[in-house]
Write a structure and sequence with these properties.
The complex is a heterodimer. Chain A is α+β, with helices and mostly antiparallel strands. In chain A, 35% of the residues lie in helices and 30% in strands. Chain A has one domain: Jelly Rolls (Sandwich), CATH 2.60.120. In chain A, a hairpin with a 3-residue loop joins β4 and β5. The relative contact order of chain A is 0.20. By secondary structure, chain B is α/β, with parallel strands linked by helices. In chain B, the strands form three sheets. A seven-stranded mixed sheet of chain B has the order 11-9-8-7-12-13-16, with helices on both faces. In chain B, β7, α4 and β8 form a beta-alpha-beta unit. Classes of the chains: A alpha+beta, B alpha/beta.
Chain lengths: 153, 286
């Protein structure tokens, strides 16, 4: 548990998190590994965890019948992904696949939800951090939509 | 035909507006719509500053401003990397070795190379064809490897196939503080690199902003966002430089086609320190 707590403390997503909150969250955390090519989850499956990437690269991708698989974004060391467990219907919207071998910390979604309900200070602190991540992804999507490198004729 | 064209470049005709006619010594395909043309340098004694541009003249098509993209120390060759997007660059993109084109220059203010050599960390941030004007800086800094200085090259492109100079990335990066990172807006299943936007690379780049200097070239919207992100990381705006692109015609600040607020991009730029142009970047009419 001490190691997991240290790993949580060192991850940028939880930077400057209060010790009592880190201790509380450690009970929801576990180390996970994915080989290159493994799916972390697939669209439509129950969303059960948030992932803090410690090493490697994960692609968020979607499959369109007429266009094949498109990579929407990649997640790197020090970043996190997965927040669909926060709100109903608790289902993933994208596939997540390890592009490179991945080591991550999985934070169990139902466990975190229960802890956030029990400790609203923790819930508010976590929500602010997830909101920052969601905002970052939204901004990225907006910039991708701009198609900045397109030729303007 | 070649001799006849060469004779146009007779002594006595030359001035800042008169092109030299030179042969293409090599045409290298970079991507599906980008080519690098290597030209015989009519004046090997002169040296250009990275970031400067030449006017390339094509018979029957016209003249276009293109940045120099080659090694400043290779003085027998003028190198230009061209994206086929217009009525002049499309035929330039199709030109082969031995064809003659006109060239005059170099013009404009380039990148602050001396300041870069003194910086603790140099960030070179190029989006799309914007990496081309930065490549001479990379060559200059790679040649002077060895100091404790770090050089971080961040490249963005639309797709993996659009990444410029990708074959050279391995030569540029090394254990001595040179890093190259790339990202594409969208990738396919076979792509193992990063997908996202160039600001993702800035967020994950590790550097001390107090000793850093940044040079940015790419679409204007990209440069504006990148400069904002760098400033929010603590980089002094006076140490952020951008290369602007406007419709350059005369290239000597006489015709006014490239006027940008109180400046002429051809004469006062194309490279500007951020404080000089930041007030104008958000003005729609400019």
């Amino acid at each position: 548990m001490e190691t997991l707590e240290r790993l949580l403390r060192e991850h940028p997503f939880l930077e400057s998190m209060e010790e009592r909150h880190l201790e509380f969250m450690t009970g929801c955390a576990r180390n996970v590994r994915f080989a290159s090519g493994d799916f972390v989850f697939k669209a439509g499956e129950p969303a059960a965890a948030a992932y803090l990437v410690r090493e490697g690269r994960v692609a968020l991708e979607t499959h369109l019948p007429d266009r094949g698989t498109t990579l929407v974004a990649t997640i790197e060391q020090g970043e996190m992904f997965g927040w669909a467990w926060l709100y109903p219907p608790y289902r993933w919207r994208f596939d997540a696949r390890a592009v490179l071998p991945v080591r991550a910390i999985a934070l169990d979604g139902p466990c975190l939800r229960a802890k956030c309900e029990a400790d609203h200070d923790l819930g508010y602190e976590l929500l602010k951090r997830f909101l920052r991540e969601i905002d970052r992804h939204l901004e990225r999507s907006q910039l991708q939509l701009l198609d900045m490198y397109r030729v303007n004729l | 035909m070649t001799e006849a064209i060469r004779n146009v470049s007779a002594p006595g005709l030359h001035g800042p507006m008169t092109p030299h006619f030179v042969p293409i010594t090599r045409a290298a395909r970079e991507t599906h719509d980008v080519v690098t043309l290597h030209l015989e340098n009519p004046d090997p004694a002169s040296i250009f500053t990275p970031g400067q541009f030449n006017m390339l003249y094509l018979f029957g098509a016209g003249e276009v401003a293109i940045s120099l993209s080659g090694d400043p120390e290779k003085r027998d060759t003028l190198t230009h990397t061209i994206r086929a997007i217009g009525s002049i660059t499309h035929p330039l993109d199709a030109m082969k070795r031995g064809a003659m084109i006109g060239v005059r220059g170099p013009y404009g203010r380039g990148w602050p190379i001396d300041e870069a050599r003194r910086a603790e960390t140099v960030l070179l941030i190029g989006g799309g064809i914007g990496l081309a004007p930065l490549r001479p800086v990379i060559y200059s800094l790679v040649r002077n490897r060895g100091a404790a200085r770090r050089v971080i090259v961040l490249c963005g492109a639309r797709t993996p196939d659009d990444l410029l100079f990708a074959r050279e990335f391995a030569n540029w990066s090394g254990p001595d503080g040179f890093e190259v990172h790339s990202i594409v807006d969208r990738g396919e299943l076979s792509w193992k690199g990063r997908v996202g936007v160039i600001t993702d690379l800035i967020a994950s780049a590790r550097f001390d902003p107090s000793g850093a200097l940044a040079m940015i070239c790419g679409p204007e919207v990209m440069m504006r966002i990148v400069a904002g992100d760098l400033a929010s990381r603590g980089l002094d705006g006076a140490r952020i430089y951008m290369s602007m692109e406007r419709n350059m015609r005369c290239a000597v600040g006489a015709c006014g086609h490239c006027q940008y607020g109180p400046t002429f991009v051809c004469r006062d730029g194309p490279v500007f320190p951020m404080p000089q142009i930041a007030p104008m970047l958000g003005i729609r009419e400019l």
